[in-house]
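Reminder: ligand-aware prediction takes two inputs, not one.
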Amino acid sequence: MNKAVRKAVIAGNWKMNKTRPEAKALLEELKPMVADVKDVEVVACVPFTNLETALAATAGSNIKIGAENCHFEKSGAFTGEISADMLAEMGVEYVVLGHSERRQYFNETDETVNKRTKAALAAGLKPIVCVGELLWERECNITEEVIARQIKLDFYDVSAEDLKKCIIAYEPVWAIGTGKTATADQAEEVCAFIRATLAKLYGADVAEAITIQYGGSMNAGNAAELVSKTNVDGGLIGGASLKAADFTTIIKAAVNG
Ligand code: PEP
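Here is what comes back for the chain with phosphoenolpyruvate:
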């Protein structure tokens, strides 16, 4: 394993938080704090209404902007939805797909995550595809089966070339927004399993090149241990990405990770 071949990515998932003035203020605070960060990709995934504000606030900086979802069709009668092309045209670079909150509250399935992933790739976006088991699934000792299934379905018919443009976020559902973090060993075990699954599907070279994040109550206190693990290439951060100081501490942990 050679962690140095992969760039760590620390992405904030703001969820349904921040008005435009609040978004601008947070990014203006964050910008100078991370201006010297080179070896870690810093991303803020923000609500659709904040995208234009976020892109303007971060122009010329090392903070990249992502959306929190996109629809799989190019255009048409899908009231309330946003297409991948609409995001790409704005200058958005990343998009979070298959987040457990989307799966839980908005009935998203592996099939639609797969369609969204392919639509995002076709538009030139970099998908951050979330996978993760429920607490019940972990207790039943089927974490690996659940994760393998999600990887196979979410990336069905995605070429190796396209897979290399994707990030996979391992987010155990029981750890998201609960304050319960997976231990660093648990995170490493599943991230290594994801890489092994990718190696079987795409070959070892491709698997070695993919950035695999951990997400689930990562914070300023536990980030260093999590990102020090061989197969944990950064994090997808919810709550702690809403505070510039905490998010910066996590980013700096990944620089040393
Ligand atoms: C997330 O929203 O992807 C997440 C991991 O949230 P939190 O860090 O708040 O658990």
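DSSP finds twelve helices and eight strands in the chain. The first helix runs from residue 20 to 34. We will return to this case in the review session.
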